[in-house]
What we know:
Blueprint lengths: L5 E9 L3 H12 L8 E7 L6 H11 L4 E5 L5 H11 L2 E7 L3 E3 L3 H8 L6 E3 L2 E2 L6 H11 L1 H4 L19 E5 H7 L9 H10 L4 E3 L5 E3 L5 H21 L10 H18 L1 H26 L4 H29 L15
Helix pairs in contact: 5-12, 9-12, 10-11, 10-12, 11-12
Amino acid sequence: MTNFPYRFSVIVPTYNRLDEIRELLLSLEKQTLSKDAFEVIIVDDGSTDATEEFINELIKKGDLNLSFYKQDHKGPGPARNTGMEQAKAEYYIFVDSDCIADKNWLKAYDGAITEPVAGFGGPDKVRSDFSPLQKAIDYSMTSFITTGGIRGSSKKKISKYYPRSFNMGVHADVVKKIGGFGTLRHGQDIEFTHRIRSQGKTIKVIDAVVFHKRRTSIWRFFKQVYNWGVARINLYKIDKGMLEPIHFFPFLGTSFILAFLICLAIWPSVLWPFLVAGFGMLLLMAIHGISKYKDIRVFVFIPIVVPIQIIGYGLGFGGALIRRVLFGGREKTGFVKNYYK
Length: 341
């Protein structure tokens, strides 16, 4: 077996995110796992801020086994590939620059990997000091009701588990066999994980938590979930195994909502009780969110964010389904302004 100088190589792509990088690196300095067990690789994807100067100062201080590489602006997938080319550990771990690692993050992975695995991943959560919108989005994206356990820390799920690039890892030898991240505009991490799964066991470590401080707004969130819907069909065109029945649910839900609104305009007296029931369900979710986050402000955002997630994903999925599957069109890209937004 190959001898590795480190257990983990933590690879972070970044682009004009100096404030976020500061927080992330501070959390990595506080890891309870011995610093001799991991290295940190920052790959700057063509930033124009002071990221390079800041990282170089940290390298001089020597508090972490830290290295820095810079490339032209190509996107986070190529940046992660650059990081893997330079990594020296047995396992490569990817984390996004807008995340803050729990102090036991790497120790949880180290303890869970008791035998060689092809890949692994952990959940993202929010901290109490995050904004109410960030908490509402976390609720929508991690609730079993809205995602079927695909994301989040729930042990229940009705679909295959695919680690995501904000908190996932892969064995170095697996990368040598399957290569790095592909060229998809959206869904690169799912396609990469699909190839990882073909090489062996992939585990979910629910205690390996990162706090995901998403830079977001309601419009950005809509664009994000729309792109995810588009990506799912693009992934299906690569390998049919990456499309499961659960992925149709938002599209079916969106179709039902549109049909219901049309019928409501025609037969309001018959259908309004069902509309009230729908709003009642959203209010119950909002109340549950207050209990979960101990923040009354999420009550305003959850009834907005949950329908946006369903409808945004459903529209992206439906549009790509019609274009690529029914009419045999070219790859649909969704919103493409910036990889990092």
